[in-house]
Every structure is written in structure tokens, then in C-alpha cells.
Amino acid sequence: MRKLALLLLALPLCVYAEQRTEALYGKAYTAVFEMYDSAGLLDLNEVDAGTEVQYRCLTATETVSVATAADDDFTDAGKFYTILLTAAEMKCKVVILEIGATLDHVLIIETYGHALAQKITRSGEYRYAAVVDATGTTTSTDLVSTASSTTDAYVPNILSFYDASADEYYEAVCTAYNGTSKVCTHTAIPAAMVSGDSVTVQARTGIVITTSNGVVDSNITAVAANAMTNAGLADGFIGANEFATGAFDANALAADAATEIGTASWNIICEDQGSTYTCRELLSILLAEAAGTAVYTSGTRTWVVKDPSGTETRLTIIYGAELDGDRTTSTPAPMTP
């Protein structure tokens, strides 16, 4: 295999292909790459003789280790090639693979997702990074003192944990965060984090449903109970004409949800002078007035108006002594829920 240093010195005569990618620190990774011949054409017929791949590992202490391992042989996958790197081989800030064939190929892999990696996150992905400050539980983790001082600042963020002792990664959703103690309560993970483990908190974007064309997939069947907290939607989040025709079909609301919405609507105050009356109460009085039964008592000049069945009194009216049509007393008695 021609060495990269020699290639750089001999650029007028020799060239090499370089490819960069990113992968999780400490996780087995299959590198995928293409190779080209000296004419710049895709090379599909290379075979690794056992010494074609040189592996270099740049660690957090800037130490570079070099090896040519048999298990790092590349494999012809048809229109591209693959190399399987073990979890141990991925414990580097940067992995450099020099692949010698018709044309040398250099594959550079920058790791992320760990305190010893090249970066905390993928390029273009913002996260707050923290090292676990003290022993927690499977449902709560103590972040470092530099974490946010705002209560629930990380709700409902996704947390990515690295368990150093088990060399495993876990993910959970933050359900509560105490800005004073820096303790984040989250959905259960397989093991509690201890001091020295790492956790990254993904930047919150709310409830995100992603599809290739921006349309919510019909396979999304439900949102968990209490997934949205009080005031979870900002003012003006849903504007005018946001719901298309047919957005809610006949079965869009469960029976109890429809009942609760209907009850709330009926109980809106529609009259607040004298006494307060809800829309439900006013309609019961108006119906009695328009279609109910009525009995007049001349001695007291009183009309008693009942509901259409003649069962419940809805309105009692008392007229003046001269029977001149003036109402001196009017007492509504609307139906109750």
C-alpha cells in the first residue's frame, strides 16, 4: 500500500480519493465507500489480499495507533465496498483507514456521542452535553452544575446516555427537570448512570413527526397521555384555515371527548345581568316560553310557565295590580345539568 505521506509528496504523479463520514464512538460500524481507478472510473473488481487496509486510531490523548488487521479486510458489495469496524476499534476521536488498491483510498471517520469522541453530536445537530454528576436511578439522572437553572428546561427532550461500565448507549425522554438540583426525571433506561458516565440532551423541537414529504404518516396512531404539558402550544400556533376540509372525520373524537367538549360549550355563560345563566339554561327557558304549558292565576296575577311536558316550572311571571301588561316579577327556573 502506498503511504499517505508519500502520496502527498508525489501529488503530480499519484492521486488518492478521500471520503469523510461520522459514526458513534465505541459502537461497531460498517464503513461504506467506493473506489476509483487511475482514470477516475468506478472500480468494481478489487479484492483484499489481507494487507490492503491500514487502520489508524487518533485517541483523546492525541496518540496514534497503527495496525493492519485481518478482520479489517474490505468486502466487495457490488457497486461499493464495506469494512466492518469493531466497537473497540471505534473508541477513537478519529479513525483513518488507508485502503490500497488500484488507487489509494483514505476513509476518515470522526466519532461523536461521547466525552472522548471528536465531537459530542453529528454535524449540524445541536445538543447540550453533560457528564453525570452523581449516582442516579434508572428513571432519574443528576446533571452537572452547569446545566440549566430553569425548571423543566429539558422537557420533553430526548436524552442520550453512555454507560461506560457496560459500554452501552441508551435513550430516554426527559419528563421533569429540577433547575435547582439539576436532576432530570426520565423514562426508564436499563441501568442507572454513575459519576463519569455521559449524557447529551438533544435540543427541544417539541413533538416532531418526520416524513419524506412533510406529511404526517397515517401509521401514527396515537400520542401518549399527557404528552403535551400546560401551555405546550405557543400563542398563535394554530392559525386561521389551518385545518383542511375533512381533517376531522365522523370518528375523530372518542365519545367521552365529544361529551366533554359539548358540556363545556353548553356551560358558557350567555347572560350575566341580575343572575348568570349558561347557554343550556337560557335555551330551557326559551323553549318553555315558546312551546311550554302555562297556567294563569287571577287572584295573584301570576303566570306559571312549564316545560313542554308540563312537568317542570321554568318561568314564573307576576303582573302589576292594574293588569296593564307590566311585569313586576319574573323568576326563571332553568333546567340543571
Give a count of the beta strands, DSSP E runs of length 2 or more. Answer: 21
Radius of gyration: 36 Å
Low-confidence stretches: 1-15, 205-221
User: What is the residue-mean pLDDT, rounded to a whole number?
Assistant: 74
Number of helices: 3
* Highest-level CATH class of the largest domain: Mainly Beta
Order of helices and strands: HEEEEEEEEEEEEEEEHEEHEEEE
Instruction: Give the overall form.
Output: elongated
CATH topology of the largest domain: Immunoglobulin-like
Supply the CATH architecture of the largest domain: Sandwich
| Termini separation | 87 Å
Beta strand %: 25-35%
Which structural class fits the helix and strand makeup? mainly beta
**Quaternary organisation:** single chain
Number of domains: 3
Strand adjacency order, main sheet:
9-15-12-13-14-11-10
Largest sheet, strands/sense/barrel: 7 strands, antiparallel
Question: Could you estimate the helical fraction of the residues in percent?
Answer: under 10%
